[in-house]
TrEMBL record:
This is Dehydrodolichyl diphosphate synthase complex subunit NUS1. The lineage of its organism: Eukaryota, Metazoa, Chordata, Craniata, Vertebrata. Gene3D superfamilies: Decaprenyl diphosphate synthase-like (3.40.1180.10). InterPro entries: Nus1/NgBR, UPP_synth-like, UPP_synth-like_sf. Its cofactor is Mg(2+). SUPFAM superfamilies: Undecaprenyl diphosphate synthase.
Length: 219
């Protein structure tokens, strides 16, 4: 147990140092799987690495909603890997869900996780539109007030997460397949062949690439 704990401590120091060494660290990373067979263990590794380097918000998404339907299985794997890789007291951690049917809980004091499905992005835009219509009905707004900034405010107040700075897209499909369609217009998207058996080096290489990029502003 001693050597394992020492290895976890060395890993924590390395990952924190890696995060600090980057010129630019994303605040919110979206992990988007376009492959048909998602791996709970590999996705959990990616989430824990995000936490370890200091990323504040992480979203997990697959276009079939498999991770969301089986979120307890994903969470079990994340908690297991937190224990193995980071040596944390896992009794303090739980999951935050994007849909408001569940009670929102932070994953830990530094990082918050949401597990998303295609319905979440659509529902967020629908809710924003309903809120705007309500404001018009109450004569607090007019139809001409609806612009990008106004919709942004309605979306962020509904969703509670900042827009993703970076999306890591896994798989051969050249699309994010419905992942928060409105929110990612300014997002840097980096494609990786697969999340299966992904290594920390591949993950950190993507972060390094992001840190070297200029903001693309929707290009």
């Amino acid at each position: 147990r001693g050597p394992a704990r020492g290895g976890a401590a060395r890993g924590r120091q390395r990952w924190r140092a890696d995060g600090r060494a980057l010129r630019k660290l994303p605040v919110h990373v979206g992990l988007v799987v376009t492959e048909e067979e998602p791996s709970y263990a590999d996705m959990a590794s990616l989430v824990v690495w995000c936490m370890a380097v200091g990323i504040s918000y992480v979203s997990v998404y697959d276009h079939n909603g498999i991770f969301k339907r089986n979120n307890s299985r994903l969470m079990d794997e994340i908690l297991k890997q937190q224990q193995e890789l980071l040596g944390l007291d896992c009794s303090k951690y739980s999951m935050e869900f994007a849909n408001h049917d569940k009670t929102g809980q932070v994953l830990n004091c530094q990082s918050t996780l949401k597990v998303l499905s295609p319905e979440d992005g659509k529902a967020d835009i629908v809710k924003a539109a309903q809120n705007f219509c309500q404001l018009v009905a109450q004569q607090q707004r007019t139809h001409s007030d609806l612009d990008v900034n106004m919709l942004d405010n309605l979306l962020s107040s509904t969703h509670g997460f900042p827009d993703p700075d970076l999306v890591l897209k896994f798989g051969p499909v050249d699309s994010t397949l419905g992942f928060l369609p409105w929110h990612i217009r300014l997002t840097e998207i980096i494609s990786l062949p697969s999340h299966l058996n992904i290594s920390y080096e591949e993950f950190f290489s993507a972060l390094h690439h992001y840190a070297a990029c200029e903001q693309r502003w929707g290009k």
